[in-house]
Design brief:
By secondary structure, the chain is mostly helical. Helices cover about 85% and strands about 0% of the residues. Helix 2 packs antiparallel against helix 4, helix 7 runs parallel beside helix 14 and helix 12 (about 215-235) packs antiparallel against helix 13. The N and C termini lie close together (about 10 Å).
Length: about 290
């Protein structure tokens, strides 16, 4: 039963991240990447504070928990900056497939740090999901010209750092709880981005742009926050690698939304990729949930 709960939370993260990427891309192009990151983590921290304030002293007084939370926060900060910049520079359908690199990063860290191993069948299904996500996100001209789109190299670095951050978020959720780990990482990232914006002299511009797009800013922050909370809950009930693999299907959702909203047609390899990723996710869900 607990595995089924974890699967449900992973799928919740899937859909929240799928829609959230579009909101993030729109917000960065209207407000800026640093500003968007600050608003996302800042609003998320405020929303989560009433649920965790009584636990702050207890958890932060344990050195092992504090180290894991700091690592999740710092890695998440740098990963987010690279991710936001890549979305601002490149086409979302071109840069999204690179995020599948998160999965092997998390798998390796889970194996060597907490000795969390997958069965051969689970590994096969996770690999199928990765292949499917890459195929569904590759446009036909990418295969013909084999060229790097703008933002792709940034996304590679972001994917590796996000994988490491996701592992520590999942591990931190087990050591503390899903709400607290997201509150702490959000607070840490909010402080870092606030200091940068303060020295850059962009706080006035931040306030002005936020007031111009309040609904977009609030929606982006809430969707992204709830996505990370859902992922953290999933990591408590199921292996972190599987939680990442299932929720990573948001790549397919986001890429498909981008293609559909831009009135572009899906080609054969994209349809096949979506089918493989979806089948892999469903099979993996049934394997661990029932």
């Amino acid at each position: 039963m607990s595995y089924l709960i974890g699967v449900l939370f992973a799928f919740a993260a899937l859909f929240l991240w799928g829609g959230g990427d579009f909101l993030i891309q729109r917000t960065t192009r209207r407000i800026g990447d640093w500003e968007t990151l600050f608003l996302i983590v800042g609003i998320g921290t405020v929303v989560l504070t009433p649920f965790v304030y009584t636990q702050i002293i207890g958890y932060l007084s344990v050195p092992s928990i504090l180290i894991v939370l700091v690592l999740a926060s710092v890695l998440g900060f740098f990963a987010s900056m690279l991710f936001l910049e890549s979305l601002k520079r490149g086409k979302i359908a071109a840069v999204e497939p690179i995020m599948a690199l998160e999965i092997p990063v998390v798998a390796i860290m889970s194996l060597f740090i907490i000795s969390e191993m997958l069965s051969p069948l689970e590994i096969l299904l996770v690999a199928a999901i990765m292949v499917g996500l890459i195929l569904v996100s590759l446009k036909e001209e990418h295969l013909k010209h084999l060229r790097l789109e703008r933002g792709v190299l940034l996304m590679v670095a972001a994917a590796v750092l996000f994988g490491a951050s996701a592992f520590f978020v999942g591990y931190g959720a087990r050591l503390s709880n899903p709400l607290f780990v997201n509150w702490f990482t959000g607070l840490g990232m909010a402080i870092l981005t606030f200091v940068y914006l303060l020295f850059k002299g962009d706080l006035h511009e931040l306030v002005r742009n936020t007031l111009k797009f309040p609904k977009l800013v609030l929606a982006t922050a809430l969707v992204d926050t709830f996505a990370w909370v859902s992922f953290a809950f999933a990591s408590v009930f199921i292996p972190i690698t599987i939680a990442v693999a299932l929720s990573e299907n948001y790549i397919g959702v986001a890429a498909l939304l981008g293609l559909l909203l831009n009135k572009e047609k899906l080609v054969v390899h994209q349809k096949a990729g979506f089918a493989v990723a979806l089948a892999g996710a469903v099979a993996l869900s049934f394997l661990i949930g029932f």
